[in-house]
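wait is this the right file?? whatever heres the structure
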């Protein structure tokens, strides 16, 4: 099919039906807040909450538009992170919004996100700054002015792990990057399981990837598995 003439402003949806399908797909993608509400497992003092498993289900739903529901639920239900939510595993909206936002931060830009959170330019992030950036992101992610629940950080295991039981500690740049890397590694592991369930040979690449150090090496191994794992047949690789 001929390209539109130079200078023309074509309707790309008409020119390529794939664009139309992709646009409809994006339009159907819920905002972070709507996603959170759709995953809510209950309420506390009128505020909805999710579990770490529901959080991971939300992460996968953003990437697998047409996934088999049973497979997606099985992968998400295998996820357990005892650092998320309160002491009963309930995660409220600001924490959910923060974690999704951190997952969207490219590792090479983690220092920018760190500087944004370090409001007083002290070189570290204290608990107040951490909650402040989480609540600001929550308001900007579809939550509106009432996005911050009074109970949002009550007995937060994440705050206790990052800043100590009294909340007086501080998060260094390296610790912040490690937090982002850990979240990304969890998400990649879940995504990998989604692919591996359809192509068992990919598990071999997973075993190799787990021996790599750093999330970048993991990503490279994952890409090789996804892009090349469908072609290779069952040939035996080297040991290692």
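ok assuming it is, sequence goes like this
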């Amino acid at each position: 099919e001929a390209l539109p003439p130079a200078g023309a402003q074509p309707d790309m949806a008409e020119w390529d039906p794939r664009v139309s399908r992709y646009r409809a797909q994006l339009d159907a993608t819920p905002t972070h807040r709507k996603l959170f509400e759709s995953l809510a497992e209950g309420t506390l003092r009128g505020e909805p909450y999710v579990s770490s498993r529901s959080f991971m289900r939300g992460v996968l739903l953003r990437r697998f538009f047409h996934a088999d529901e049973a497979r997606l639920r099985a992968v998400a239900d295998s996820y357990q992170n005892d650092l998320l939510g309160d002491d009963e595993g309930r995660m409220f909206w600001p924490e959910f919004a923060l974690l999704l936002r951190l997952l969207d931060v490219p590792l090479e830009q983690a220092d920018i996100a760190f500087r944004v959170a370090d409001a007083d330019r002290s070189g570290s992030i204290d608990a107040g700054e951490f909650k402040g950036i989480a609540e600001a992101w929550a308001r900007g992610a579809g939550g509106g002015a009432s996005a911050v629940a009074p109970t949002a950080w009550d007995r937060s295991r994440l705050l206790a792990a990052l800043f100590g039981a009294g909340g007086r500690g501080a998060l260094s740049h390296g610790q912040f990057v490690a937090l982002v890397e850990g979240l990304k590694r969890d998400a990649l592991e879940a995504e990998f399981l989604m692919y591996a369930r359809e192509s068992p040979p990919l598990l071999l690449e997973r075993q190799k990837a787990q021996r790599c150090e750093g999330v970048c090496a993991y990503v490279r191994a994952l890409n090789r598995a996804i892009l090349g794992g469908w072609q290779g047949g069952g040939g035996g690789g080297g040991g290692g």
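The longest helix spans residues 173-196. so i think its the right one actually
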